[in-house]
Amino acid sequence: MRDLKDIEKFKKFIKGEESDKPEVIVVGRSNVGKSTLVRMITNNKSIRVGKKPGVTLKINKYPMKNYTLVDLPGFGFMSGLDRKVEESIKDKIVWYIEDNCDKIACSILVIDGKAFPEIVERWDSRNEIPIDIEMFQFLKELNLNPIVLINKMDKVKREKWDEQLDKIVELFGYNPPWRQWSDIFVVSSLKKNFGWHRIPHMINRYVEEYKRKKKVD
């Protein structure tokens, strides 16, 4: 059972108004383009985006027409923060998702398409499950319709895309070729304004499905 003091602390960690609308959460490592994606979806240019990892340290909520977009803090390495603080933020992210899973229509996991296979290899060498894959499985287990936005693909040579993307979907447990999983994986370069435009359509589809299901229930 959670301590009342912990709950009050947790509420201070959330920035934005509560709403009855379904939620769409955005998660990912620090510095993968999470807040940039949120800024593009909301068309809110005041959203802070930084070059250093760990700019988003609170849970930020943005009201949209038929849902609330929730930008969760980045997990993993955060510039200038102690390891204990990083772990605490990760715990709060998991806590938020578990506590709100009934109102989450879908989730978006943002990854760095260029660095991802190397990151997984590094974790595998320590016999550990990479945090991104662990998060994806967690979202799947809770039936939160995870979409994986594979960002920063402008940093991969175009002729290497199929090889890189096949590798990425396989690391998430899906058989290549990657193109057959376009309902889960979205290839993008937010910097070049490419690929992400599919995301709002996918969100709207899941939000409508969520609303229909809740009416039936």
UniProtKB/TrEMBL annotation:
InterPro entries in the record: G_ENGB_dom, GTP-bd, GTP-bd_ribosome_bio_YsxC, P-loop_NTPase
The protein's required cofactors: Mg(2+)
Domain EngB-type G: 20-209
GO biological processes: cell division
Listed SUPFAM superfamilies: P-loop containing nucleoside triphosphate hydrolases
Transmembrane segments: none
Domain of life: Archaea
HAMAP family listed in its UniProt record: GTPase_EngB
Role summary: Necessary for normal cell division and for the maintenance of normal septation.
Protein name: Probable GTP-binding protein EngB
UniProt source species: Methanothermococcus okinawensis
Gene name per UniProt: engB
